Amino acid sequence: MSTTGICANTAVSSASANKLPANGERIDFVIVNTDVVVVYLGLGQTPTATAYHVALSPCTVAHDGKGGTFSSDSWKGDVYAIVASTGGHVSITEIV
Asked: In which region does residue 87 sit, left (phi positive, over 0), alpha (psi from -120 to 50) or beta (all else)?
């Protein structure tokens, strides 16, 4: 049986922060950019705007559903996020 975490719109700032802690029980996760700035993800390490694993495209207008999406059914480690300028937001769903 799997369970899904609560949907939340999480703030991302210009200071890298862990947005999804490591979880050995994780089956899958999805991160969606819901704001108008690019969000950079680091898998297991702190990203910067020039050194990152994944760049999530921005929405045209906040929460328009056009932001970049990243999902993985194999990564069980920490996921960090940062933006280069003003703050942004992401929606994160984890399935365990």
From this structure: beta
- C-alpha 50/C-alpha 6 separation (Å) is 31
Global pTM value = 0.93
Neighbours of 8 (CB within 10 A): 10
Low-confidence ranges of the chain (pLDDT < 70): 1-6
**C-beta separation of 21 from 86 below 8 A:** no
The residue behind tokens 């280069």 is: 84
